[in-house]
Amino acid sequence: MTATAALPQLTAVSTNDRATPSLVYRSLLRSIKDGLMVPGAKLPNEREIAQQLNTSRTAVRSALAMMERQGLVRRRVGSGTFLTEDAHDVFGRMDQTETGSHEDVPSFAEIVEGRLLFEPAMMHLVVRRVEENEIAEMRRLLEAILDAPTWEDFKESIYALHRQIFSATKNKFLEQIMGSILDDRRAVLFDGRDTDKPAPDLVRQQTHKELRAIVDAIADRNGKRAEKLVSDHLLRTLATINIWR
User: Fold this and answer.
1) Rounded-to-integer distance, Cα 124 and Cα 235, Å
2) pLDDT surpasses 70 at 3
3) Which pairs with CB-CB distance under 8 Å and at least 24 residues apart come from 112-116?
4) Is the distance from CB of 204 to CB of 154 less than 8 angstroms?
5) What is the DSSP secondary structure assignment for residue 80, as one 8-state letter?
6) Nearest one of 1, 238, 3 to 110, comparing CA atoms
7) 107-125: per-residue pLDDT in tens?
8) Torsional sign, CA 158, 124, 121, 72
9) pLDDT for 1 beyond 80
10) φ/ψ of residue 45, rounded to 5
11) 67: Cβ–Cβ under 8 A, 6 or more apart, which residues?
12) Left, alpha or beta for 78 (phi > 0: left; psi -120 to 50: alpha)?
């Protein structure tokens, strides 16, 4: 197996910017999609990727770890990091909604960027205060994501789960924030087209898988794991917004 061709160059960003791993992840996804990296191929090492993308090795390491947890890459001790053979299948599981800028409400990218600043840390409050009946409701809402008959229902089910998680903080300010987020997303119909059509089954399954892991961490009262999972989820979401533009 040979090393891949040069990766697309990213604009330099501050290495302490939480979105940096998201930008690295985004560039690697585009490289896979553009055929610069093929399934089974060995990736450049962390230092080489950091140099090509003009970012830090820490950001690269975080992005690769996120990709490994998603099943996009596998690491072999002493050999390096390789794309999985089914790496291209990830694109069929991604929620790739094209979003725009809006005069009256924040864009989806702005919302996700803002959520990254506080929501992962918020999970420690959730695991301390959540009640068993609230966890049961989260699990019910997870199944609604799988069963959503239309794309709009799919999005509504996702946000219903997020609202339940925010509600578990017992903090009215945080609940108000999520309420405002949902109002803003509804105002633009979640940036969707053909919202009366079903969401792809693979997309619903992948979303359910990611969110179920978060709910499982909450049920286990594991704030550290919940924080990491929420961070990963939001970083991946941010990375794939308008990814092919």
Assistant:
1) 19
2) no
3) 112/234, 112/237, 112/238, 112/241, 113/19, 113/238, 115/181, 115/234, 116/18, 116/19, 116/231, 116/234, 116/235, 116/238
4) yes
5) E
6) 238
7) 999 999 999 999 999 999 9
8) negative
9) no
10) -75, 170
11) 25, 28, 73
12) left
β-strand 73-76 against 80-83: which pairing, if any? antiparallel
Nearest Cα to Cα of residue 165 among 142, 144, 189: 142
Complete domains list, the chain, with CATH: 20-92 (1.10.10.10), 95-240 (1.20.120.530)
**pLDDT higher for 64 or 18?**
64
Please give the structure tokens belonging to residue 37: 């990296």
The mean pLDDT of the chain is: 87
DSSP bridge pairs for 76: 80
Within 10 angstroms of residue 176's Cβ, the number of other Cβ atoms is: 11
The pair of three-digit structure tokens given for residue 199, joined into one six-digit string: 């969401």
Token match 């609940």: residue?
A: 175
Return the top range by mean pLDDT from 30-44, 73-87, 179-193. 179-193
Encode pLDDT of 6-39 as tens digits: 555 544 444 444 447 888 888 888 888 787 888 8
What confidence score (pLDDT) does residue 193 get? 74
d(Cα 124, Cα 126) in Å, to the nearest integer?
5
Q: And the tokens for 172? A: 């009215």
Residue 127 has pLDDT above 80, yes or no: yes
